[in-house]
Design brief:
The chain is α+β, with helices and mostly antiparallel strands. The chain folds into three domains: 147 residues, no CATH class; 213 residues, no CATH class; 232 residues, no CATH class. Helices cover 25% and strands 23% of the residues. It has 17 helices and 32 strands. Strands 11-10-14-13-15-18-19-20 form an eight-stranded mixed beta sheet, with helices on both faces. Strands 1, 2, 4, 5, 8, 16 and 17 form a seven-stranded mixed beta sheet that branches. Strand 21 and strand 22 form a beta hairpin. The longest helix is centred in the N-terminal third of the chain and has 18 residues. The chain is globular, with a radius of gyration of 30 Å. It starts with a helix and ends with a strand. It comes from Botrytis tulipae. Pfam families: HET. This is Heterokaryon incompatibility domain-containing protein.
Length: 647
Amino acid sequence: MLCKVCDRLNVTHLLKLAKANSGNVWDEDGYLYFEHHKRYDDLVSAASSGCELCLLLQRQCEEEETLRSVTRKQRFRMMEAKNKPLNLRVEIEASHLNCDQLFEEGKVFDHLTFQHWESGVFDGTTFMVYILQTPKDQPKFIDDTRIGQFIVDEDLASGTNFDIARGWMNTCIVEHSGSKCPSFEEKFLPSRVINVGLEDTNPYLFVTNGLRGKWIALSHCWGGQIETTLTTSNLQSLQKEIKMTSLPANFRDAILITRALGFQFLWIDSLCIIQDSHFDWGIESEKMGDVYRNAVLTIAAAAAHKAADGMLHTQSQIPRNMKPKLKLSKDSGSDDIVEIGSSIFWHENLTELFESSPLQSRAWAFQEKVLSPRILWYGRRQIYWQCLCGFQSADGSPSDGGSSPWNRDHIYPIIQGLVFNHNDGSTRFSEEGLLEINHEYQFMVIEYCTRALSCPNDKLPAFSGIVALLHKVIGGHYLAGIWSKFFRQNLLWSRPSKAPYTKQYRAPSWSWAVTDEETHLYNFNSSRLASTPHDTVLLSHHIELSSENPYGAVKYAHIIIDTLTLKLTHLGQYGNPSNKTDFFLFSNWFGDAGLSSLFPVDPGFSPRIVCRKEGKIIKQSRKPGTTPTSIKISFKHAKLRTSYNHN
């Protein structure tokens, strides 16, 4: 049952208002809306008389607001005591559009928004937003515009959800393979995989010995100790049987998903790499990039904080006792309706998973996402698909638009092409092309450094899969995160505030990998770093690795450079005041040739170099006819920091 006010609500009328407001969102006087109840007492009265929508809104008013100590009900009462009416107003919106996009760009209108306004647009406050929903097999359209999202099955282990996942995969196989997405062909299997077996059997570890096949990979958060992992002591026994009951929920679920999708082999890091063998870890971690790049699919346990959380759960139902209906038009029959579903505060979408899910905070998961051609994402309430042709959601939300999730095609287009075209290094790039690759690489470093590691020494290994692929194209030497070909650019990393070094040595101080803090890399274009007669020259370098992975952890590293210096104008304490070996140098940028060979000349910035006493001047000489001093500096254990600070 609906009251007279709510009964006048219909989608066709709301769409006409939305179209009229398109591109006019900031015009207070010309903005159109549907008027709902003017006073809170009117809303309460309608709810008491049996209006389901008003009752839903009233109950929402009784909840305490985030960041406020009062309920909406109390706040609305206080407003009306000051002769400020509630003035509820209603709009329909497309969740995949930004506010500056036009009505015509909307493919699915799926949000019913309630606002209370005191006067005009700028005083409007969104009161509540509800999801409009329809059954997937009964979509509703007005002209070519779809109304509402699909109702999802919140049992992620249901046959319905497995059918959806298989449908996405089949579409990619038939329509995408060989064009933009890699083909579904057999490739050399990883050294070890899990043979998932049949439904009533236990899986087992399979040593592949160079065989070819197809496999699925798992991307997940460890989240602490895992009881059953591959070790030197159980290597033989796990080749006979891996008891399902001994595995954490994420692993059990990944096995069930692999079976349901019709595949035999599954790769899970802790069960396919010998965890207590430093030698095996070094070898296999170098191959990890190819494991994900060549997998037919990656299963992403996006919402699981730890291995024990699982993916195939049934989310507890949203607390709702009623599901009000909204008519498509004023003359709609009982079948021409959409359901007013849950509040968006209960909702989940792929953008949210990309921005704030547990998996997205994990450093290892960065290269797993970048290198995987297809990903089946498991959230809290639904499943999602990602391939090189776009995104899909079980609820049918559009995969494009201003608020769509991050798209690799837009951020790392060149590197994506290198990854999925299986470039073997034979493709040659111009200098400008290589600069663009380095430009994307530095953005990758910035994003990667926002993520956390449970094992700090994995900072370089967890990025090595990407680096191994890029090295074939960039060439030169890889120096603990720094490309020798672009060492001037790559050394321009900084931290807005103090960046603590890790207690245990894992990288030289001139590498961004030395800290667990977020870092910035300055992406100057080629003209800002054009060659000069005084360019800094990398004379030599030395890297001692900690494992067999040439792009992994290092024991020790140093570089020797030939560069110019700036005149010291200020010496001050840095860090711990009791430590007299820490100091910083602030140099006067103006009037000196300075570090123009290392840094771009820009009077808007001033350089800061921080070092410790271990930085040793190997050779000092004055070039004939020049004022600046040319020096060769060995940065071995030196705590070198370079950054730009705005004056």
